[in-house]
Every structure is written in structure tokens, then in C-alpha cells.
Records
---
Amino acid sequence: MLIRDNIAVVMAARTGAPDAFFGRDGRLARALPGYEERPAQQRFAEAVERVLRDGGLLLAEAGTGTGKTLAYLLPAVGLGRRVVVSTGTKNLQEQLLTKDIPLLARALGRDLNVAVMKGRGNYLCRLRFRSFGEAGSFRRLDEIPLFRAVEGWAPRTETGDRSEIADLPDTVDFWREISASSENCIGQGCPEFDPCWVTRMRQRALEADLVVVNHHLLCADLAVRESSYGAVIPPYDTLILDEAHLLEDVATQYFGVHVSSHRVDDLARDVERELKAGRLDARDVRSELETVRHRSERLFKVLSTGHGRRLAPGWMSSHAAEEAQALLLRLEGLRTAILALPERPETLTALSGRAQALREELAFVLAAEDDGHVYFVETRGRGVFLRATPIDVSARLQELLFEGLRAGVLTSATLAVDGGFTYLKERLGLRPTEELLLASPFDYAEQAVLYVPRGMPDPMSPSFVERAAAEIVRLLALTRGRAFVLFTSYANMNAVAQRIAGEVPYPLLIQGEAPKPVLLDAFRSTPNAVLLATASFWQGVDVVGEQLSCVIIDKLPFASPGDPVVAARIDRLRSRGGNPFGDYQVPVAILMLKQGLGRLIRASTDRGVLAVLDSRLVQKAYGRRFLASLPGARLVHDMDEVRVFFNPEATATVTS
Ligand code: SF4
């Protein structure tokens, strides 16, 4: 009987009948105690099934709680051909693998053939690991015990994925020198090619029905597809992009070019190491290395004072131009010297290619001539970065990604602005065949109130922080802590943290005090905790239950026009006769606000208050666009109404 049922369900999935799966008495209900049927989930699954079967492009906003992950996974595993699923982050990949896919397999009663792929940098490169062991040197001696842990793990691992090593910090320096990367990999010429972790990962993906990647790997792959290094994701024509609202930012990051003082240093260290490992005398190469280092130091020192500066053709002073020219020449000298070595290993030949790529990219950024890019200098820590970032990624996404797809699905809980997808379609250059807007099944009118105080000072005014801090203290008293307070800047976060520290009798957790996962664990396990954080906590953070009963946002999250990429996009829209504020800045902020406020209600039993301390939301005409895009929580302006929401018995006090 069980076997017959399983066959029926697998067939149902293969032939496209999500109702047999998601229905009240369906397979999912039997696999998941407490299952609640959600019509929107089934509608979404049917739409995905249709587009995967017939081809086309589906855009779907599926509000929080729709159950969109299972809704797209079910048709994907029943398709009978390779489907790539891309999520926003590695954490979401992990969630798919440890939660949603096992549940789907359980409900279907069969194993699913799934492969996970992360960016190459997550995997140990056998060749570089060996050469580092023979000839590498540590930048930080306190990392030696961590390296010993890697040495203990390397012979045992089946995947080479660094996430298997407990307590290896993301920031550990030596990992860069032993991990795989497209620019260091020598591909089939590598003596370790067959047992290589990246080769094996790719092999597993070639054999899988479902390949789970993240947007970073997806875009990194698209960016290298045009170069000689090749892509790692196996060929695909069917793609499901979850958290699709992140795609433009990630593509912008990977389709751009950056040259930094770190990149030159890394190249020099790698060359030195390979010479040492190969016991090569190579005096010419060593002398070129010294000059490259010296010239790089001089050039980046000249540039280090220009943080945030936008570059245009002819931007360099004659002194900077002289230094730049010298470095370009020396990179070419290094390349030639390496290639002149009579018996050089493949790894050194690859490094000569890296020197050439670095020279070409440096020349491209310094010239600042391509009007499709915005060029600027950025300093971070001790590094100086020269960046060329594409202003508009739609044409390249179209050419590199969407044109090659037979079927695609772009989904997220926050994709729509003003009740439609015009903004997204323009930014990503999409021509969908079907669009779907699925509201959250949660009853926001019952589960939440949206508090927007009237008469707050303008967020730019000097008195804003003082007033915001006072509002936060009063709100936290009503909610007994249990809140996220999300800021649009570190400056506001720190200023408010200082002011409320002695006023709030609950544990305060502040971004920067510990890594993000540690802070989130502490928040979940500390009664009445309050977390103060900025942009990275606005999305991808999930706290179910009354531990999170309040989300406060200091101001509408407009991207700073001081950011060179934002400024260039504004200029571009204006020069084309558009309205940058209405067509770009407001939609970006609406999506961000939807994400931030979306942290609060994660289940049908969650209740709480959303607070936005920015009166522009109700005073400005554009505020209506924000309000219309938010879930339907009751809008209140009086703190007493928040009090009543948390304590209905208080009604009499308020109204008397
Ligand atoms: S094939 Fe590339 S990534 Fe793999 S071990 Fe060799 S060099 Fe490293």
C-alpha cells in the first residue's frame, strides 16, 4: 500500500498535480504534523509547474508564510531534467538542504538527487594546500593552530568544504592562500584534477536533478563564462531564483572590476611561494617582484587619500599617472620574466596570466573611459580599491543568463512595488510570460499594528536621534524588550545605543559586538533581549515566536546618494529624462522596508508591533506608495494604541 501511494505521488509530481501533494489530505499533510493547507502555495506550485513544463519566465512575489520553497521544489524535482535553484546566501542554501529538501523527500517517499555547489573559495585547493605546506608563510602567527586544524581535517573530508571545520573564522587570512579560485586554477593541467574537490563537486552536480547554488556563485560563473577560466555550474536551461530581489546587487558586484593593493600583494606572495616550492633561482622574477611591490605601494599610497572619489577620464594628476604607468610596466615585466623561465611549472604559467589580467584590469579602471561603468576609489582598513562598477546590469543579465533559459522562475517575498513588477523588470531587463502576486496568508490586521508617530523631526535634523531614542525606550517598555531595532546607518545605531543604554532594563545586543550568527543565537536564547543592528539584519533573519515581538526602524531606507553607484544610477536616469527619485530611489527603499518589517511576523501565531520612526511615511505624498506596498497591519499614531494591542485590558484606561 505504501509503495503504491509513493508511486502515485511521484507520478503526480511528475505529471504536475500539486493538489495531490499540498491538499488537506495530501502527502505533505501526512509528513508534516500541524500542516495547514495554503491555497496560495498550491497556486504558486501550479504556476511553477506550468512554466517549467511549457517554458517561459515567471515572476512571483509570494508573501511571508506562503510556503514558496516547497511550492517551487515540488515541480522542480518532478521535471525529469536538471534544474538549478539559486538562493540569496549560503545560509539559505543550508536551510534548503537541511530542512526543505529532506521534508520534500519524506513526503514523496523517495530519495532526491540533489547537489549543492558553493563558490570555489569555499573549497580547499589540493595543489595550493600542498604548496603552502611546503613553502607558504603566515601573515599572522596566531593562525598557526587553525592551520593545524585544517591539516587534520584535509585527509578526512569528503567534500573539501571549509564549513565542515568548526570554529574556522570567515576572516582567517591563510584560507585565501589554500582555497580554490578561478584565477589560480590550472584546470585539466593540474596533477590533482581528478580528486580535486571542485572537480568532484561539479561531477556530482552533473549527475543531479536539482543543483542548489547561491547568487554569488551564479553571478561569478556568469562573469567568468566569457573568460578563459570557465564556469563550474554544469550547463542549465531551467533556473529558479529565490530571493530574486538580491540579484541586481550581486550581479553588480560580480560584473564589475576591482583592483586593489591586496590583489597585487597576493599575486606577489603566490609567485614567491611557487618559486620557493619549485626551488627555482629565478633572479629576474624575484627582482621584478620587488619592483612590482614597491611600485604598487607608491601608487596606492597616492590614491589612498581619495576615498569615495568618482573617477572620470583624465582624472589622474601627473604624479599619479606616472606611478600608474610604472606599475603597469612592471606587471608586464613580471609576466615576461616568469614566461622566460626555462622550466617553469604550470602554476607559474598561471601566475603570469594573473599578472597580465591584473595589468589589463588596472589599465581599464585607471582610464575610466567606459560610460557603462562608474569608477571610484574606496579605502577599507589598510586596503585601497579601485573599482569599475556597471551602472546597469540588465543587458548583461539578459545576454549571459536569461537569453539562454528555456524556463525561469524569479521569486521572493519582496519583489513587487506599487502592486506590480515594473521596477524589477526594468532593473533586470526581464520579459516575463507570467506574473503572480500572492499575498501572505497571515492576518496582519489581527497580528500586528504599524506605529508611525506623528511630528517626529526630519531624520536629517540634529534632534532626530534624541527623539528616536525616547520613542524606542517607550516602545521597549510596552513590548518588554523582545525587539529588533534596525537602523539605516552605524552612526544612528551607535548614537541611539549610547542614549538608551542606561534607560532600558533589558539585555542590549549591538551589531559589531560579535559575529552575526552569534548575536542571533544570543537574541533567541536571551529573554527580553533587544538587538540593535544595521543593513545586514534587515533580511534573511528569521526569529519565530514571541521572542521577537517588535521591529523598530529608524527611518525610511533610502540609499545614500553619496554612494558612487547610487549617484551614477540617479545621473543615468535623469539624463534619460526619467525621475530618479520616483522610479529608482523610492522603489529600492520600499523593497528594503518590506524586508525589514517582514522580520516580525514569521508564523500565524506571531504578534507584534512594527514601528517606523520616520514621519515622512505619513506626511509626504510618496509615503502612500510605501504604505500601499506594506502588509495590511493597522496603522496607528498613538503610543496608547500600541499599549492596547499588547494589553487589551488597558482599553478602558485609554478611552476613559
Ligand atoms: S584543479 Fe584547480 S582547484 Fe582543483 S586542485 Fe587543481 S588547481 Fe586546485
---
Amino acid sequence: MRIAVIGPGALGTFMAALFAGENELVLLGRREMELEQVEVRGRTNIVSKIRYSTDLGELEGVELGILCTKSYDTRCAMEMIHGHMGSDTSLLSLQNGLNNEAVMTEYLGDDRVMGGVTTHGFMRTEDGKVVHTGTGYTVIGRYPGGVSSMVDRVAGIFNLAGLPVEVTDNIYGHIWNKVIVNSGINPLTALTGLKNGEVIRIPHLQWLMETVCREGANVARHEVELTGEEPAHCAAVVARATAENVSSMLQDVRNRRRTEIDCINGAIIEAGARVGVETPFNRCLYSLVKALESSYL
Ligand SMILES: NC(=O)c1ccc[n+]([C@@H]2O[C@H](COP(=O)([O-])OP(=O)(O)OC[C@H]3O[C@@H](n4cnc5c(N)ncnc54)[C@H](OP(=O)(O)O)[C@@H]3O)[C@@H](O)[C@H]2O)c1
């Protein structure tokens, strides 16, 4: 399959390494780099020759695009790429956040957008090099729901490449679920400077995490059927399983980068306003993280 991975960061570099072997792959970025191969170490070990480019003309003839920018760059990336995508190109998001697929749909229409959730962890050490820090699961589906033959085909390609993928007919439910889990863990770690496991070890934080998750779930149930266990319970399970991890939001704060708070707690606040559910705890965490960001951005 002709595949374009858009965004040469931690996730995108892993995806490029994964698919370069059996497919015709291009890794698309926004800045010039001398990149002829990508390397994954850690839980997975792959070294792949790749084609890296900033030329959006490379999207011609591509059957599958995989969007791997941060969620706050989704609209900007779509502005750049949509005019170069053929009418047969489908686009899959594996990003975190609630609104990526909705933005993609604005540009591409309903039939070509796939959503995805992955709980694997990746860290970029330098351009073209990532560490696969934690294993997890990946689920993809037609956005916002339903089935499509393209999703089945893409799942087959993931499985063939060695990353097991499940197909769902309720990807929006999975996306909501991960957003709620992230809304409970990420801001608390970013604000306290603590690792994920502390969020369930310290009772004050555990109470806050569960309260925020319940609030998000109350909003979500107006829009979607949530998947799996109660989100507050899922968040506790994730915090325990990733106890030693520094969350992506805390990493962003430490590195003085913009966080993805807008598409996590910010998106829950927006959805709450849309369906008429108050979200005071999400609003509080959102405001604190925005204030923290504004101290260095
Ligand atoms: N890392 C993980 O473990 C993981 C796991 C699951 C989900 N996710 C989600 O996946 C998304 C990406 O995360 P990440 O950790 O890979 O972030 P990242 O390392 O910051 O990578 C984002 C990449 O996107 C590039 N980019 C931004 N705008 C672009 C554009 N218009 N065209 C082409 N490239 C563009 C950036 O370019 P520059 O290099 O020039 O800045 C950067 O290389 C996030 O939503 C994250 O939450 C990450």
C-alpha cells in the first residue's frame, strides 16, 4: 500500500519504521532534515530505510495517510495537506484528543476519515530515533462509527507489520474513553510534577482524578456509548500500569512546550457546554494548566 505518515515525531517515526518494509512509504515533515533511515529501540527493535520529504506532492497516489502531529497542529496540517490528497486517499488519526477526526472530516468528508487510539508509548530521542517505551493496544475504526472495508484493510496491514490492531464500529467511544482517562491523569501530573503512579497513591489526587473522570463521563454519555469499564476505574488501572511513567503533559511542561490540554480537558468543557452539563473540575484543571503554560510560552 502507498502510505504517507504525516509528522516525524515520536509516534510518526515509529509508524514509518513499522510500515517501511512491506509498503511504499513516505514520512512527511514540515522542516528539512537529512533522514534516510529511522530507528526504533526498546520494546521493539526496527531499523528501516525510509523516504523523508517536505514535498506535499508526495501525497499524490497515496492510499492511506496517518496523521501523527500533536492535536493542536491538526487544523494547520489539514490546511496544508488536504488539497494534495487524491479523492481516494483515506486518513487515519492516532493522535490523542477529542476533535482531531472532526477537523479531518471538515476537510475530507465522512467517508475517508478513520479514528484510532493507541496506548503504546514512544519517546523521540533525536530526529529519526525513537524508543518504544511501553506496550499497549491499538484500535481503529470508521469515524465516528460503523464499518468500512478500508478499515479492515488497514487493520490487516498493521497486523502484518507486527502491531496488533483491533477494529471497532464505535471508535468515537474509544476516543472519548482515552480522553477521559487522560483528563484525569495528565493535568494532575503536569501540575504536581509527579509520576503517573502518585495520582493513585496520594488520596487527595486519587479523589480529584476520579471526580474529573466521572464529570467527563457524564458529558460523554450524552454523545456516545462509552467502551469498556467505568472511565474513573480505567484511569486508576492506567495510572497503576504506568506508575513509573512521566506523562506526556508533564514532559511538555518540563520541556516548556505547549501541552495538549485544549483537546483533552478543554474539549470536555466544550462538549459539556454543547450538551448542557456543568464541568467545574475540568475547568479548574484546564485553567491551572493554561496558567502554567502561559508562564513559559
Ligand atoms: N508519543 C507517544 O507515546 C504517543 C502515544 C499515543 C498517542 N500519541 C499522540 O500522538 C500525537 C503525536 O505525538 P508525538 O509524541 O509523536 O508528538 P511529537 O513527538 O511532538 O511529534 C509531532 C510531530 O508533528 C510534526 N508536525 C507538526 N505539524 C506538522 C505539519 N503541518 N506537517 C508535518 N509535520 C508536522 C512536528 O514537527 P517538528 O518536529 O518540526 O516539530 C513533530 O515532528 C499526539 O496527539 C500524542 O498525544 C503519542
